[in-house]
Design brief:
Distance between the termini: 74 Å
Shape: elongated
Helix content: over 70%
Catalytic activity: NAD(+) + NADPH + H(+)(in) = NADH + NADP(+) + H(+)(out)
Enzyme class: translocase
Radius of gyration: 19 Å
Largest sheet: none
Strand content: under 5%
Number of domains: 1
Keywords: Cell inner membrane, Cell membrane, Membrane, NAD, NADP, Translocase, Transmembrane, Transmembrane helix
Number of strands: 0
Number of helices: 4
Protein name: proton-translocating NAD(P)(+) transhydrogenase
Organism: Candidatus Competibacter phosphatis
Length: 100
């Protein structure tokens, strides 16, 4: 019985985190979404580090595949967050030198 609980605990945590994240982000107004994303880019880095640790401890091919997918998605999320931040910061730059 203990092995079953140990196997399903990470799945329950993943399901809870997914549901909680969906509910929290779903309540954010559209106008605040980009500043909120740029302000939490460090979280994407922490997720990426956690995915790399999980991949390093993977034993079975299924665990390795899931870990690789987690690293890939975490890296894409972090890079995308920085691109969005750069784009948002470009919108706030003055255009004094660019006038004709």
């Amino acid at each position: 019985m203990k092995q079953v609980v140990e196997f399903f605990s990470p799945i329950y945590i993943l399901m809870l985190a997914g549901f909680l994240g969906y509910e929290i982000i779903g309540k954010v107004p559209v106008i605040l979404h980009t500043p909120l994303m740029s302000g939490t880019n460090f979280v994407h880095g922490i997720v990426l580090v956690g995915a790399m640790v999980a991949l390093g401890q993977a034993v079975t091919p299924l665990e390795q595949a899931i870990g690789f997918l987690a690293v890939l998605l975490g890296a894409g999320n972090a890079v995308g967050g920085y691109f969005v931040t750069e784009r948002m910061l470009e919108m706030f730059k003055s255009s004094k030198g660019q006038e004709k």
